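Kindly review both lines to help learners:
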Amino acid sequence: MNEGGKITKIPLSERKATFREVSLGFTEKEALKEAQRCLQCKNAPCIKGCPAGIDVREFIRLIRNKDYRGAINKIKEANNLPGVCGRVCPQEEQCQLACVLNKTGSPIKIGYLERFVADWELQTGSIASHHRVSKDIKVAVIGSGPAGLTCAADLSREGFSVYLFEGLHIPGGVLVYGIPEFRLPKDIVEREVSYIRSLGVKVITNFVVGKTKTLDDLRREGFKAFFISVGAGFPRFLGIPGENLNGVYSANEFLTRVNLMKGYLFPEYHTPVRVGQKTIVIGGGNVAFDCARSALRLGCSEVKIIYRRTKREMPARDEEIDNAEEEGIILEFLVSPREIISDREGNVKAIMCIRNKLGEPDSSGRRRPVPQEGSEFVMEADTIIVAI
């Protein structure tokens, strides 16, 4: 069996009380050992499995040769956010799923190798720039999340004069307000943004296009094209009774309070986050796990995730599910919420749910959850986070 090594994490005894990054990544010795497992396949299915088209085979070969500068440069030919993608990109459903070693053992940990060389570049302080001569054509990129950062960097490398507009005070979009520090440290995002600035991109914060200035205003200032990348900031709710009670958060509000507004440092930072003692998170993706693990670190004594299908259908990364279970998060499967119950003073007291069984596949290809009438039950809670 061609098995990869285990990932080193900070001790479990420390994890519930800190927002430090959980995974410590590869040491040089571990990275070289993992890179040696790569078969250097001629047809390289891992490249086809990467949405960005990174030459995975070549950057791993360069790591094997200890040419870390060559490896990071090879990655950046297709991806300007290697430190971010190495941590939060769903490799297990993309490049690593395509790895031929899935047939005989475990796939190459491509994400951790990408993270290794990105962190090597940070630690050595030798970040290379690839800024080209400007074509003197002004382009506005609106929104500084992953799509905006990527577009701005690619256009600047092609010689355009790029202005990146961000409504908040820190660039990064969902990378800074939506993903907790224990999964994606803010200094990594800041490093990636600094690299993109080095390409010649002008980053302008506290600027809401449409309010600070309109598109017509920007056109009059000479902008010839616009890329709008503002899609991740709006919450979704369930449409069930009780969602307006005190103690109900959307995942967007909860994570923004914790991540961008430093609610976890209250009262040093004046952004209180109420979690009480029993928190229930509704959803099964990475965002749900981010909320649950954040609530645990804020001092909540019992955190549950309720999901309408089974663990097999959960869209969250396997690594995040494993981390949550290690930390004591309780997973309730085949459960759907029906009503959030009040204590009659406008606060959350409990949540009424119904049990499901799986029916035929729906348009997503996953088996549809079918509510079982008469199976309603109530779970106590003082905080509900909707993360769907």
Observations:
- The chain has 15 helices and 13 strands.
- The radius of gyration is 23 Å.
- The first strand starts at residue 138 and ends at 142.
